[in-house]
Amino acid sequence: MKAFSSNVIFDFNRSGKPLAFVSLLLISLSVNAKIWLPSILSDHMVLQQNSNVTLWGWTTQTAETISISTSWSDSVYTTKAYQGKWALSIPTPEAGGPFNISIKGHETITLKDILIGEVWFCSGQSNMEWSPLKGLDNAENEIKAADYPKIRFFSVRKKKAEYKQDDAEGLWELCTPETMKDFSSVAYFFGRELNTKLDIPIGLINSSWGGTPVEVWMEKQTVASNSDLKKAAQQIKDYVWWPNDPGVTYNSMVYPFLNFTIAGTIWYQGESNRDIADSYYKSFPLLIETWRDAWKKDFPFYFVQIAPFKYGDSKTNREAAFVRDAQLNTLKTVSNTGMAVTNDIGDLTNIHPTNKQDVGKRLALWALAKTYGVKGIDYSGPLYSDYEIYGNKILVSFDHVEKLMTKQRHISCFEIAGEDKVFYPAKAKIKGNKVQVWAKEVPNPVAVRFGFTNEALPSLFDESGLPASAFRTDNW
């Protein structure tokens, strides 16, 4: 007699000894049978409230039936694995918890201490990655006070990959002084502001890598199919400390989370694109568009306008200014975006300014006002709107302000130019919510720039103290 198992043929003799061998083989297969989940689905996680969230995973039983039940509902949801992979969408209630989730197949997995709230994906380069231990104002007291059990952290391990990955290494943790000190400061202060103002659980996924240009966070094909971006990517300087090839962190640090429902994204990046700033006018909006397409959701995207810094390798002292201008242009042309301006809290000697409290808070102001509908919040500083020429003067108008103010004796960082495109330092005078600009060297002005150098430290604010963004009226 012959038996078939795992494509192996066994001959049985009358003593029955091979039968014992087959039994051991079947027992071994049973012991090795397994259901497993991506790292983002684990104890202590936060799921997006009032949503249909996806739970997914794998099984060694290729066509197994998987059932899911939750402690917030009496419903049971089922699906069948296809070639060992399964996914299931389940509804979530309003913010609350803790809850449990049970996932059953040939074995049972129970996820515990699950909160329902708001989940934000936090990404970019080093200023997003920077933790309190690496440099933060009042770090000792901030770390001691970081006891927020309804804020949860997930730190994505740095990894690059040539191909899209199904999973990424990471672990959900409660916000404690011990976990906060190694987590993104900007993400923490953003999350803390939402948690305290909205009184709901907050999940923060930190997927960032210092030094990385925007192209590594985009799908490789997106860059390759655009001739301008492809050419710009070839000019990116090569460093051993961080990846520079298009797509390699998207594959390993973004793609694995596309099934995970998020409320939105916060982003702090741009310094590494200053040498190819012209392309940032295309690449940054395209990053937002392609991420939204990949997540299948038009989520809010709030970002930080990079801070002033004295770059030692600068040739024109304007490279970073064009990155800031590209960021301002993105704010004005891409819907559902917001920009935190930082030109008043930069540090010309430190590319990682240690005032991350205000950065996180300013991002949160956008979220509170625009995503969560909190009334009475001044969420944006003055943004350039328009200009008019009056003889030898230009009058500049702003949005998001009723009355401008300065913290200096004289308003600085304005420049003015004529048809020759040569800019001269200008004098400026506040007139309500407008600024009058002029320079004796330019009798017939045609263009104005404000804060348009790498290291400009302007002083122009609205009544609440939020700074005006750098801008230019020209397209030279």
TrEMBL record:
Gene3D superfamilies linked to this entry: SGNH hydrolase (3.40.50.1110)
Membrane-crossing residue ranges in chain numbering: none
Domain of life, source organism: Bacteria
EC number assigned by the record: 3.1.1.53
GO molecular function: sialate O-acetylesterase activity
InterPro entries for the chain: SASA, SGNH_hydro_sf, SIAE
Keywords recorded for this protein, A-Z: Hydrolase
Domain Sialate O-acetylesterase residue range list: 118-364
UniProt cross-references to Pfam families, sorted A to Z: SASA
Biological processes annotated in GO: carbohydrate metabolic process
Listed PANTHER family: SIALATE O-ACETYLESTERASE (PTHR22901:SF0)
Protein name as catalogued: Sialic acid-specific 9-O-acetylesterase
Organism: Zhouia amylolytica AD3
